[in-house]
Amino acid sequence: MSASKSTPSSDELAQIIASAQRLGVEMDEEEAIQWLTAIAAAKSSESELVIDTSSGVFGHRVTMLDFSPEDLTHFREIGRLVEFMDQPGRVETALALSGSAAQSKIQSYPGDADYFERVNIIAETQAEACQILADLIRTKALNTAKGPSYQLIEVKFGSYPYDVIHDSHPIPAGSPISWSVEEIQAGKIDTFKTDGSPAVIRWEEAAADPGWCKLDWVIADPLRGQLANASNMLDVTWEAPDGSITPLDGFMDPYFQEVYLEAESIPIFSKLSKHVSADALESYISQLEKEVNKYLTKEINYGKAAKRMYNIFRLTGRYEEAAFLRELFDEPTTLLYQVWSLIRTIDDASNPDSPITVEHMLAQTDQLIIAVIETLEGEQETEIVRRLLRLRDSFSHQQTNNKLSSEAEAARAEVINVVNNFFYEKLTAVPTIKVYIEEKQYKS
Q1: CA end-to-end span of the chain, whole Å?
Q2: CA-based, 20 to 30 A from 254: which of 105, 165, 271, 288?
Q3: Cα 318 from Cα 432, distance rounded (Å)
Q4: 120 and 92 Cβ atoms separated by less than 8 Å
Q5: CA angle 350, 353, 356 (to 5 degrees)
Q6: Are 340 and 264 within one domain?
Q7: Which of 421, 410, 228 is nearest to 333 (CA)?
Q8: What angle do CA 288, 141, 339 make, to 5 degrees?
Q9: Residues linked to residue 151 through DSSP beta bridges, in sequence order
Q10: β-bridge partners, 246
């Protein structure tokens, strides 16, 4: 990890601004200097926590620089669907925004509505805490399986104890188990071992080692008039009678990209944050760099790599490069990143039992077509619009929401190709960022 700088470099900033101008990226020098000054002040502050008294949200000082309370009512409304509730003396929770939703000041075209929730379970034993968690997640899943404007897509809970074949897909041991609503209702997943023999994974067995816990929904957002994916990632801890805190997945997540939605959560956040590892920042950056490597070498996605690079740069003192990326996320072409995400959302909602109607999906597809027309031109626009029109035509001729994976994936592939080309061109045109990318690709 590179050493943090205490003050921004005007020469380096001037070079970044010059690069932005050459690339046609509008970069406000005064605004960039204000952000650089603010982040330098945040890094030198004794307190890592900032509380916005007017809105009641709080988070890490650097994180709060990127958060805008403009859509707070919207995110709190969705939060009521995804959140877990406190149980006095038994369960304590703190719900936060994460991902692009927590960076609404700089990402004009955010993707999904991602949440992160700390869940602290007070119990006599770890086994009892795991059972309480299993009951909490199962109850939440079944209670929010379907409503007038939402549908639960999947729940990740537990890990496969051995290699399996599930729905014709090979899954290695240790992978998170993805549960459908039907499987949660049944309390079991029917799979096959690699030798072809049947194997049943029961909910109670998964509870013994809950691992990575996450819930995903598709919602018809009435305020924005569009479909969206909403998720809640859980960081679950067990508080023993002696007050010791143990993460149930073996690792307590740091808090460098979370904006907590209610000031009432400060006591539980403060209690848990004391147990975050002293090298949490280094671990967080290391994890981000692994993801950058993946999106630069294996699952090529320069947009996702850029988002993670921004978080790395702003936390490791590479402020000038971070300032450039802040402006990049506001460029019109990055709207296609949202389009790419929403095509997946439409596909997730396409099933006969979904409460998301054909009318919802037609309206959403119309919005995507308009967005592409307003953003692109030439062959790129023609090809993506052609695929989206075909997707729309499929909806208009069906009575129920049947899966449209092949057409949806074709449209997604076209969109992500445009997004990749855009980010690759802009990122590699800045010498210092180009060197960073090449170093990651070379080491891989």
Answers
A1: 18
A2: 105
A3: 10
A4: yes
A5: 55
A6: no
A7: 421
A8: 50
A9: 146, 218
A10: 238
Residue 244, burial from CB neighbour count under 10 angstroms (0-12, 13-18, 19+): exposed
Q: What's the token pair of residue 374?
A: 């307003």
Structure tokens that stand for 379 in this block: 């062959």
Beta-strand relationship, 176-179 and 150-159: antiparallel
Spatial contact of 404 and 345, defined as CB atoms under 8 Å apart = no
Count CB-CB contacts under 10 A for residue 125: 11
At 371-391, the pLDDT tens digits run: 778 877 777 778 778 877 877
Amino acid in the structure at residue 165: I
Q: Whose structure tokens read 């990740």?
A: 156
Number of residues that make up the chain = 444
d(CA 33, CA 142): 49
Span 345-362, pLDDT tens digits: 777 776 667 777 777 777
92 and 206 inside one domain? yes
Instruction: Please give the Cα distance from 352 to 403 (Å, whole number).
Output: 8
Whole-angstrom distance, CA of residue 107 vs CA of residue 110? 6
Instruction: Identify whether 61 is part of a domain.
Output: yes
pLDDT tens-digit series, residues 90-126: 999 999 999 877 887 776 666 678 999 999 999 999 9
- Condensed to tens digits (0 to 9), the pLDDT of residues 120-132 reads 999 999 999 999 9
Residue 444 is predicted with a pLDDT of 64
| pLDDT attached to residue 4 | 44
Same domain, 351 and 267: no
In a domain, 443, yes or no: no
pLDDT, tens only, 263-280? 999 999 999 988 888 788
Q: Is residue 23 part of a domain?
A: no
For tokens 């070498």, what's the residue?
297
Sequence letter at residue 365: T
Residue with tokens 């290391």: 286
Same domain for 265 and 366?
Answer: no
Is residue 391 within 8 A of residue 411, CB to CB? The reply is: yes
Q: Which domain holds residue 409?
A: 333-424
Helix %, strand %, coil % for the chain, to 5? 50, 20, 30
